[in-house]
Amino acid sequence: MNLPSQSDQTQPSKMNFIRFEVQRCIQVLFGHDKVHLPLDPRQVDAVLEPVWNEIGLDDHPSLSLITTVDANGVEHALVDHCDGDIYLAADAGGDPTCEISSGKFAGESWRVVAYDEGFPNEPYQLATSDHREAADATCRALQALLAPARVVIGLEGGLLQFACADRSASVLVMDSSFAHLNQENSGLVISSPYQGHAAEFAGEHREVTVEPEAVSTFWGQLAAQQELAPTHK
Predict the structure, then answer these.
(1) pTM above the 0.85 mark?
(2) SS3 helix, strand, coil % of the chain, rounded to 5?
(3) Using CB atoms within 10 A as the burial measure, which of 82, 122, 144, 179 is most buried?
(4) Which of 101, 120, 146 delimits the end of a domain?
(5) What's the total number of domains in the chain?
(6) Same domain, 135 and 29
(7) 97: nearest Cα among 67, 122, 123, 118
(8) Are residues 136 and 170 in the same domain?
(9) What average pLDDT score do residues 1-13 get?
(10) Judgement on whether residues 26 and 111 belong to the same structural domain of the protein
(11) What highest taxon heads this organism's lineage (predicted)?
(12) pLDDT digits (tens, 9 = 90+) for 73-91
């Protein structure tokens, strides 16, 4: 995977990504610069397929690279015949949303993009690849970060026996029953900000063990029991 440089695109001052996706792209060369433009949804596969793995359209004089802009201002690309509707519109100059590209067609690529909470319709390019499988793997890894971490804490008689999670996490286990013992032994004592609960808790900080298979086993049993539980309407 290729990661964009700082100059590739403007970065939001604070990013809160809400989703990731893989986009099929056309690589376009502008001099020494290469950009990855997502495929316009109007692209006809039968037109693009013969040149998908070629670097350039020089051997296909009847084809042209067209750049388009959607309603959100996102630039796309497609390849069209010289007698195709989109090409004719771009050539005539009557449609401001499409034009014959000044760049050079450079084949297929895939990119991983993120969408920020404040700009949900504006894709932010994170990585690119010539291989769909690599882009998919990167996207899955990023998407997993959006899901809540699944943590399992095992107690016996109020004492922490183990703590594991499906990814890195820190936990603070608190028990009011042992607050006085921690006070006597200069242990960790945590004051509670909540009214209606104990004022102080014995605390134990633990960096959990990353054990995704074990966590999946524990949470799988929870899911199975929830499916069997009667529903109340």
Answers:
(1) no
(2) 25, 40, 35
(3) 179
(4) 146
(5) 2
(6) yes
(7) 67
(8) no
(9) 52
(10) yes
(11) Bacteria
(12) 899 999 999 999 999 999 9
